[in-house]
Write a structure and sequence with these properties.
Elements: E1 2-10, E2 16-27, E3 31-33, H1 35-44, H2 48-68, E4 76-80, H3 90-100, E5 108-113, H4 114-120, H5 123-133, E6 137-143, H6 149-155, E7 160-163, H7 166-169, H8 173-189, E8 192-195, H9 201-209, E9 214-216, E10 224-225, H10 243-253, E11 263-269, E12 272-278, H11 280-289, H12 296-299, H13 308-322, E13 326-332, E14 335-347, E15 350-359, H14 360-366, H15 369-373, H16 376-380, E16 383-390, E17 395-401, H17 414-425, H18 431-437, H19 443-450, E18 454-462, E19 468-478, E20 485-492, H20 495-504
Length: 510
């Protein structure tokens, strides 16, 4: 009777996170016997605990051998049956075996089937708490194969649930919906997830997309003897997580990206970052802002020449240093974006961050009240009109208006809007000066001459009563990658300034 080891793989990295030890019997007379042949008789006779303790001792012996060779430990899970939990000194026996070989308890994970939880009842939680006090992690095996699945999630303090392979054996739309719901529920409860029975790339891709933390199955490797599985050590053929990486990736994997908010997880180091994973809402939000660009621009904006690099780098660096959450607002390709970064974990010189994105302009299209929630109305109420203009695309978009102009000029091309606005809303004696002020071809040169990021001039513009009053028109330069963009603003003037302009340019038309 020997343990075979099957790898359990981290979905985010593809690295082996731990192994499950499975009992195998290679009989000299009957040949290779599968567990379904020898386990039921052992359970019936009450001798199954002898097998399970023998498997645990073999695991620990292999660990001891690897430790002597200075190899890192890789956690291993092994199974306990309901019969084992009925043994009076089962906890003492497990501790004695691990301590005999000087094996850290957190390197051993204990798997207990859901059916055992159902049969033992309230005593199960006492066992789990005991294992926790002794330093072990406890996994629920075969989740979804019993009669009280969701009740066990509520009643017992399992660290991880292993989803039964039946979900993937009958893989269809219903199975997808059920798995997605279970993963969401587990993450909300702070419970880790492993899915058994992964046999195809389709299975692996789907489980990664819905946030299943770890996966196990023939797609990644069949159970193998320790000498073939390379004895749980690092070697040239396999990538295994170190104990430090275990803690790092456990924190990252537990993050829930299924809330419906555009979110991604990035790894930041030395002013560079890499997207580990992102949800479909983040991808959609990015394509709304950059419909023609590839997603890689988020990973390597400097290579694309974007000023977006400086903005994101400052945000990520701030979070990495302070280990606190920070956010920033900026204009990106004509969209007002709120980017917020949350600290997750650190390893060596790397920092993992959860990043959320809000496209404020998209939200305004569907819910104008968002402006109230973010205090934007208070800012824009200083103006009669605020438009975002994009000369490179000959585009203009109205953001805010309480003016009484004849039409919404932010719904036509920029060049057309300037011509129509001049003819309809600007007093005839100011039109030539207004056209010159709105000349997009000279804007950058004028900014350089003034050494500021805004330009402003007074013009007599049509008011609600049909007259023409002095108002200040400003063009505020905004950061937007390689594209030129400006906020066009019309602001009311007080009586003192209006009188000054009456003298300098001519009187208002009331």
């Amino acid at each position: 009777m020997v343990p075979y080891f099957q790898p359990i793989v981290r979905s985010l990295t593809g690295e082996i996170s731990c192994f499950e030890a499975l009992a195998r019997w290679n009989d000299p007379i009957y040949g290779f016997l599968t567990p379904d042949i020898f386990i039921p008789p052992l359970e019936k006779n009450g001798d199954i605990y002898l097998l399970d303790m023998a498997i645990l001792e073999r695991i620990c012996k292999i660990y001891k051998e690897q430790s002597a060779k200075s190899f890192d430990f890789i956690p291993v899970s092994f199974n306990l049956s309901r019969v084992d939990l009925g043994i009076k000194d089962i906890h003492e026996q497990i501790n004695a075996i691990c301590d005999k070989y000087e094996i850290p308890h957190d390197m051993i994970h204990i798997e207990i089937t859901e059916s055992a939880s159902y049969e033992i009842g309230t005593a199960m939680e006492e066992h789990i708490q005991w294992f926790h006090r002794d330093g072990y992690k406890v996994w629920m095996d075969d989740f979804g194969n019993g009669f009280s699945t969701f009740n066990t999630m509520q009643t017992f303090s399992f660290d991880v649930i292993k989803l039964d392979m039946m979900f993937l054996r009958n893989f269809n739309k219903k199975a997808e919906i059920i798995l997605d719901s279970i993963i969401k529920m587990a993450k909300s409860l702070g419970i880790g997830t492993v899915c058994e029975g992964v046999e195809t790339m389709e299975h692996a891709k789907f489980l990664s997309e819905i946030g299943c933390e770890r996966v196990q199955g023939w797609y990644y490797g069949r159970p193998q003897p320790s000498e073939i599985a390379k004895g749980l050590k690092h070697d040239a053929e396999h990538n295994y997580e170190t104990s430090e990486e275990q803690n790092y990736w456990d924190k990252i994997s537990s993050v829930n990206l299924l809330s419906g908010t555009p979110e991604m997880i990035v790894e930041y180091s030395d002013h560079k970052w890499n997207i580990i994973t992102l949800n479909k809402f983040m991808y959609k939000a990015f394509k709304e802002i950059h419909p023609e660009e590839k997603l890689e621009i988020l990973n390597k904006p400097l290579e694309y020449g974007h000023t977006l690099y400086r903005i994101i780098d400052e945000l990520f660096e701030q979070v990495s240093i302070t280990k606190e959450n920070h956010k920033i607002d900026y204009i990106d390709n004509g969209f007002l974006v709120l980017l917020e970064a949350y600290y997750l974990a650190s390893l060596d010189n790397k920092t993992a961050l959860k990043v959320t994105l809000r496209n404020i302009y998209t939200e305004l299209e569907y819910k104008r009240n968002t402006m109230l929630e973010n205090g934007l109305v208070g800012l824009y109420s200083q103006f009669e009109l605020v438009n975002l203009i994009s000369p490179d695309r000959d585009a203009s978009m109205q953001i805010y208006s309480n003016a009484s102009f004849k039409k919404v000029y932010g719904q036509v091309s920029l060049a057309t809007g300037i011509q129509e606005f001049t003819k309809s809303e600007v007093y005839v004696d100011d039109r030539e000066r207004y056209i010159k002020f709105m000349d997009m071809s000279t804007l950058e040169a004028r900014y350089e001459d003034e050494e500021i990021n805004y330009l402003g001039e007074p013009f007599r513009l049509r008011d609600k009563k049909g007259g023409f009053r002095w108002k200040m028109v400003t063009l505020l330069k905004v950061q937007s990658g390689n594209e030129r963009q400006y906020l066009y603003e019309i602001q009311r003037l007080d009586r003192k300034n209006r009188e000054i302009f009456n003298v300098k340019y001519g009187k208002e038309i009331l």
